[in-house]
Design brief:
Helix content is 64%, strand content 0%. With 133 residues, the protein is an all-alpha fold. Helix 3 packs across helix 5 and helix 4 packs across helix 5. The radius of gyration is 23 Å and the shape is extended.
């Protein structure tokens, strides 16, 4: 909601505030903020693309125009920020309610007693490549 208000107040054609108001309140020119916003969005896009697809860093150079070192630095900074923002909600030890919910889910899927087994490797994978068994 805060982001929507900011965009509505300063960046829409019929904005509530002028560019001069923006400069006075944020101590930077309107176009500088827009450039920072675009650059940050690009870096977040690079980090998010690299994680799920294990995209090689050099492919980001071709598609996003960022060097390998910048991509790696961006990914590291992104991960650090995500940890700081979400650690209290998601990166905590499970409480009893969480454990009960997870155990029920595992049981419903046919994996009772799986809590504590980090990799679930003790159940049979009939189609698993032999090298992984």
């Amino acid at each position: 909601m805060t982001h929507a208000n900011l965009m509505n107040n300063y960046f829409n054609p019929n904005s509530v505030y002028t560019k001069e108001n923006f400069r006075h309140r944020f101590w930077m020119m309107h176009h500088v903020f827009e450039r920072l916003l675009r650059d940050v969005q690009q870096k977040v896009t690079v980090a998010i693309r690299m994680m799920p697809y294990s995209s090689p860093v050099d492919s980001m150079d071709e598609t996003q125009g960022m060097s390998e070192s910048t991509c790696l630095d961006t990914l590291e900074q992104f991960c650090d920020i995500i940890i700081q923002v979400y650690k209290d909600e998601y990166l905590r030890e499970p409480n009893q309610e969480d454990l009960n919910r997870l155990l029920r889910k595992d049981e419903d899927r046919g994996f009772s007693g799986m809590m504590g087994s980090l990799d679930y490797m003790h159940w049979d994978w009939k189609n698993c490549p032999t090298g992984w068994q």
